[in-house]
């Protein structure tokens, strides 16, 4: 899924996009050319999970003549790319990922491969609103007169927007990156991995008021204890510039993979145990009709560590991997969606896309970037929250969640009560197959855990956004899926798995 | 509820209890003497919430002749003191607070006032088990040879238990407090409030392996990024030394308050909005039969900030209070309880009370105080915090019990035969708690505590989150008395 800790409200494009954790040309060439060809006996590869990482791994392995078997617990592909279509005919909304930054070239190349049409996803929009306490203004006014926002700034911070303050705070890091490119990253991580966002801002002389401003405007107020390198990587990597969306819904991407893999996927297969020996890997899974197992030469495990924690593994993974599985921090995310009879924000306020920012529990409202001109109806992302805020929405039942969100939205748009038709919501932390929304390092976790997160364990290889440094992004799922597929593709063959799927006991 | 980030596996008692933020004598005398007597201007006080903070505030206000009315959304008193009794006759288990340290004198005073019988709550038990990295041993064995646990500790840490390493790490702070008394806390907070537990241990030169060992053995592996001051306060305050439980269940304490306040409590009243003007506070609430309002001269708000966040404040609180409400971090906690036909941990494993520590998702089991009158019993099959607790919370009850059974069976294979029924409580998913307890992120004590406590006009605040005894009954009682006194002493 996507997130935007740094959303330039004015929508001005920055300098030429440059990715912070740039992918090699070899990886970028994969959508067009596939993995490097090497003649070999086909391998049977168990792929656990049909999210983007599992799909791309299976797809690339199959292209090289291997035999992937994808086990998916749910009855859909895409994982945290999940387009909701429970609304009036033609309407849909994204419960998970909703946008692709221009710098995520690998993602865009797969869209291109499958002939998917893209269009801009509007980020900043000067006409959207900022409502903090009883102060309400447009984003344009807030950029022009930031001192009107009710925060206890220090004198030197007065009259400066939060983006200016952030740019100044990261100036030297940005300069190092411009000077040294990707090579600068190891130094940045070495210097800053210990810092939470809050500590980083304090070390750069931010006042309490400016930290509060930054937290609210970047939607990070309850993530201030997360590792600042996550934030630096996204911002310096320009993850929030020139965003795209897939026309028709983001699920068209996993569905395109599905068409190429339909026969290799087993739906409704909930993996509960993994076993391996020197030659094979066996996955044990349950379906409503019983317990089964399937054996392969290798496995690609894309199950989030939060879910993998409950899967029985024999022989046990290394202590380092076990520690990473236990400790890796998962963020929460909740989205609440309203179907409305009339898109009053367009007709009455002239708002076409963009985000309204507030200190209310809903945190932000995201307006659709494009709407069907022949239909007055529309979808509103009434609330999009992370961390503690998202967990609290998650702890309510659906009915109270919608009712409470309506109250919040009504404080900004009183018209909502009349125009609201139906609501829906998605709480990623409560989805037993996701076990959280995405990985967000705590301070030091990159240094302490990343090597163990990515390392294969015998014949089991790992992929998913959590096994990349593009946490929360489709790009991370794809990049790690290709890496795992390559590891398996290049591994020596061991004859082992001649057994078919067997009914257990 | 209670927490134990530092549970000495050997059960050895430390030095004489010394609480970190001693309750002033005046407060400690409250259970026996009540608030200081004053001119009897009778005040109408709306108390929001019938957890321990609300109960003690209402109780002490009524004792002084005031007129409290308590609005409680649920149909029980006690809040996060919650004794589950949905088991075989006579059996019960604690979903929330389960123990009282000897150092929590104020809590013990109220138990005495209401004549509640206490008995020891066994913490460490050398016969308890440790199951880490697939290796199983007795707590006594892990203590005698901690290297067997297999954590990659540094050379200089070899042969030392997590408890011993921790004691070395905080000995200078212990000395500081012995020398300077409670005043030493100012120095500790100003020096360490910005540090997470992880950073504190880094600073003390711990290896990664030792930090991992400490995290696993003390159940704080998912809390390493919270403020270290929380753990320091508990350990230096002897919060895990000489624990007691109330015979018959912890709910006997809130029920005793209830006995004195029955007519003053309105159950099923869910607060929607709080309003005030210069003379009065109005609290709007709903029941299943409609919407109502209650007016008073003052209010005591004991709602957790996580819940208060969704309540409409018609005359806005100060900016600083709003910020504290938004930012204060709440920890999660989940408990899973099994009723078993035979307490085979006693008969076969020789474990009479205490805990088993694991690196499995269940993290730890707690065994009840042995009861010679029955072979049935309740096992606290899992007690988790933070991310671990949230994950249990995100499962439905059935999967939660099934998954906990899988884990427990790795340690006690006989559990499948003996298991009868299970129950669980995920505090983050309880919408009237919305979290287990406040747990500061680094820096939050310095940046938020004043705003957390400050009254807003005629609304005063209490609850564990409005004290420095986060997660403990003592914090609810201390803050409830403070809020009651503020109102008692306020001009009418």
Describe the structure.
The complex is a heterodimer of chains A (505) and B (492). Chain A has 505 residues and is an alpha/beta fold. Chain A has 20 helices and 24 strands. The longest helix of chain A has 17 residues, at 474-490. Mean pLDDT of chain A is 92; it is low at 1-19 and 497-501. Chain B is α/β, with parallel strands linked by helices and 492 residues long. In chain B, the strands form seven sheets. In chain B, strands 10-2-1-14-23 form a five-stranded parallel sheet, with helices on one face. A four-stranded mixed sheet of chain B has the order 8-7-18-19. In chain B, helix 3 runs parallel beside helix 19 (473-489) and helix 13 crosses helix 18. Chains A and B meet through helix 9, helix 10, helix 14, helix 16 and helix 17 of A and helix 8, helix 9, helix 13, helix 15 and helix 16 of B.
Please outline the helices and strands.
The complex is a heterodimer of chains A (505) and B (492).
Chain A: H1 25-28, H2 30-33, E1 44-48, H3 52-63, E2 67-71, E3 83-84, E4 93-94, E5 100-101, H4 105-113, E6 118-120, E7 129-132, E8 135-138, H5 139-144, H6 162-169, H7 171-180, H8 184-192, H9 197-203, H10 208-217, H11 228-236, E9 243-246, H12 252-261, E10 265-266, E11 270-276, E12 281-287, E13 290-296, E14 298-301, H13 305-308, E15 312-314, H14 319-327, E16 330-331, E17 333-340, H15 344-347, E18 354-358, E19 364-367, E20 378-386, H16 387-395, H17 398-412, H18 416-419, E21 420-427, E22 438-439, H19 445-454, E23 460-462, H20 474-490, E24 502-503
Parallel strand pairs in A: 1-2, 1-14, 2-10, 7-18, 11-15, 14-23
Antiparallel strand pairs in A: 3-4, 5-9, 6-9, 7-8, 11-12, 12-13, 13-24, 16-22, 17-20, 17-21, 18-19
Helix pairs in contact in A: 3-12, 3-20, 6-10, 14-19
Chain B: H1 25-28, H2 30-33, E1 44-48, H3 52-63, E2 67-71, E3 83-84, E4 93-94, E5 100-101, H4 105-113, E6 118-120, E7 129-132, E8 135-138, H5 139-144, H6 162-180, H7 184-192, H8 197-203, H9 208-217, H10 228-236, E9 243-246, H11 252-261, E10 265-266, E11 270-276, E12 281-287, E13 290-296, E14 298-301, H12 305-308, E15 312-313, H13 319-327, E16 330-331, E17 333-340, H14 344-347, E18 354-358, E19 364-367, E20 377-385, H15 386-393, H16 397-411, H17 415-418, E21 419-426, E22 437-438, H18 444-453, E23 459-461, H19 473-489
Parallel strand pairs in B: 1-2, 1-14, 2-10, 7-18, 11-15, 14-23
Antiparallel strand pairs in B: 3-4, 5-9, 6-9, 7-8, 11-12, 12-13, 16-22, 17-20, 17-21, 18-19
Helix pairs in contact in B: 3-11, 3-19, 6-9, 13-18
């Amino acid at each position: 899924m996507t997130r935007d800790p740094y959303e330039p409200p004015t929508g001005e494009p920055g300098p030429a996009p440059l990715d912070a954790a740039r992918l090699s040309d070899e990886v970028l060439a994969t959508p067009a050319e596939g993995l490097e060809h090497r003649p070999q006996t086909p391998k049977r590869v168990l792929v656990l999970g049909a999210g983007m990482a599992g799909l791309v791994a299976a797809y690339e392995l199959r292209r090289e003549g291997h035999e992937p078997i994808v086990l998916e617990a749910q009855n859909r592909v895409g994982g945290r790319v999940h387009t909701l279509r429970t609304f009036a005919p033609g309407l849909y909304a994204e419960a998970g990922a909703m946008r692709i930054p221009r710098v995520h070239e690998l993602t865009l190349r797969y869209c291109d491969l499958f002939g998917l049409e893209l269009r801009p996803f509007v980020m900043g929009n000067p006409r959207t609103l900022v409502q903090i306490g009883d102060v309400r203004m447009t984003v344009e006014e807030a950029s022009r007169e930031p001192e009107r926002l009710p925060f206890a700034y220090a004198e030197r911070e007065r009259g400066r927007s939060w983006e200016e303050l952030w740019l100044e705070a990261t100036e030297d890091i940005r300069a190092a990156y411009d000077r040294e490119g990707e090579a600068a990253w190891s130094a940045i991580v070495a210097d800053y991995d210990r810092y939470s966002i809050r500590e980083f801002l304090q070390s750069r002389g931010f006042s309490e008021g400016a930290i509060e401003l930054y937290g609210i405007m970047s939607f990070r107020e309850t993530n201030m204890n997360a590792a600042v390198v996550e934030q630096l990587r996204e911002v310096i990597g320009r993850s929030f510039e020139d965003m795209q969306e897939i026309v028709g819904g983001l699920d068209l991407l996993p569905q395109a993979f599905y068409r190429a893999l339909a026969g290799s996927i087993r739906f409704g297969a909930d993996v509960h145990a993994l076993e391996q020996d020197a030659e094979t890997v066996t996955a044990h899974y349950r379906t409503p009709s019983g317990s089964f197992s399937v054996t392969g030469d290798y496995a690609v495990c894309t199950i989030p560590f939060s879910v993998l924690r409950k899967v029985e593994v024999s022989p046990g993974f290394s202590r380092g991997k076990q520690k990473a599985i236990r400790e890796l921090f998962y963020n929460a995310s909740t989205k609440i969606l309203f179907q409305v009879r009339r898109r009053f924000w367009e007709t009455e306020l002239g708002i076409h896309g963009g985000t309204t920012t507030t200190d209310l529990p809903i945190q932000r409202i995201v307006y659709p970037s494009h709407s069907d001109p022949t239909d007055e109806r529309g979808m509103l992302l009434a609330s999009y929250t992370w961390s503690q805020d998202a967990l609290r929405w998650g702890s309510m039942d659906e009915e109270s969640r919608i009712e409470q969100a309506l109250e919040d939205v009504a404080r900004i748009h009183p018209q909502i009560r009349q125009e609201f038709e139906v609501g829906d919501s998605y709480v990623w932390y409560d989805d037993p197959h996701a076990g959280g929304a995405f990985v967000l390092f705590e301070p030091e976790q990159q240094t302490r855990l990343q090597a163990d997160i990515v390392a294969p364990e015998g014949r089991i290889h790992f992929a998913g956004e959590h096994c990349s440094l593009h946490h929360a992004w489709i790009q991370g799922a794809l990049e790690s899926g290709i890496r795992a597929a390559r590891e398996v593709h290049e591994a020596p063959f061991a004859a082992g798995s001649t057994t078919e799927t067997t009914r257990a006991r | 509820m209670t927490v134990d980030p530092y549970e000495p596996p050997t059960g050895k008692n430390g030095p004489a209890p010394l609480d970190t933020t001693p309750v002033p004598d005046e407060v400690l005398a409250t259970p026996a003497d009540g608030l200081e007597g004053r001119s009897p201007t009778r005040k109408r006080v709306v108390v929001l919430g019938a957890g321990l903070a609300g109960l003690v505030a209402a109780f002490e206000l009524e004792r002084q002749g005031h007129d409290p009315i308590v609005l409680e959304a649920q149909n029980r008193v006690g809040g996060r003191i919650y004794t589950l009794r949905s088991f075989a006759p006579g059996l019960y288990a604690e979903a929330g607070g389960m123990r009282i340290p000897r150092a929590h004198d104020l809590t013990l005073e109220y138990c005495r006032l209401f004549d509640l019988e206490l008995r020891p709550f066994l913490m460490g038990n050398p016969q308890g088990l440790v199951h880490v990295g697939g290796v199983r041993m007795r707590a006594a064995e892990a203590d005698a040879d901690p290297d067997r646990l297999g954590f990659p500790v540094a050379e200089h840490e070899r042969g030392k238990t997590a408890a011993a390493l921790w004691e070395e790490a905080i000995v200078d702070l212990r000395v500081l407090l012995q020398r300077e008394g409670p005043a030493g806390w100012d120095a500790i907070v100003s020096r360490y409030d910005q540090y997470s537990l992880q950073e504190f241990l880094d600073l003390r030169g711990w290896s990664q392996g030792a930090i991992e060992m400490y995290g696993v053995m003390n159940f704080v592996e998912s809390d390493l990024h919270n403020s270290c001051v929380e753990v320091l306060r508990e350990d230096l305050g002897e919060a895990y030394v000489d624990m007691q439980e109330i015979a018959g269940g912890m709910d006997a304490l809130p029920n005793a308050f209830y006995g004195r306040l029955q007519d003053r409590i309105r159950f099923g009243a869910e607060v929607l909005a709080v309003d005030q003007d210069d003379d009065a506070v109005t609290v709007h609430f709903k029941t299943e039969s409609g919407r109502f309002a209650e007016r008073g001269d003052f209010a005591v708000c004991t709602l957790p900030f996580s819940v208060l966040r969704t309540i409409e404040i018609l005359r806005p609180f100060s900016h600083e209070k709003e910020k504290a409400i938004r930012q204060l971090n709440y920890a999660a906690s989940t408990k899973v309880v099994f009723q078993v036909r035979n307490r085979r941990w006693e008969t076969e494993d020789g474990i009479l009370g205490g805990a088993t520590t694991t690196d499995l998702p269940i993290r730890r089991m707690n065994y009840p105080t042995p009861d010679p009158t029955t072979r049935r019993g309740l096992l606290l099959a899992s007690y988790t915090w933070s991310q671990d607790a949230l994950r249990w919370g995100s499962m439905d009850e059935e999967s939660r019990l099934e998954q906990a059974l899988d884990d427990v069976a790795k340690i006690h294979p006989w559990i499948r035969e003996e298991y009868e029924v299970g129950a669980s409580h995920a505090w983050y998913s309880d919408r009237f708690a919305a979290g287990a307890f406040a747990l500061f992120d680094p820096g939050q004590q310095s940046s938020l505590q004043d705003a957390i406590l400050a009254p807003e006009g005629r609304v005063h605040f209490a609850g564990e989150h409005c004290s420095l005894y986060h997660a403990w009954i003592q914090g609810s009682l201390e803050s409830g008395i403070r809020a009651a006194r503020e109102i008692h002493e306020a001009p009418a």
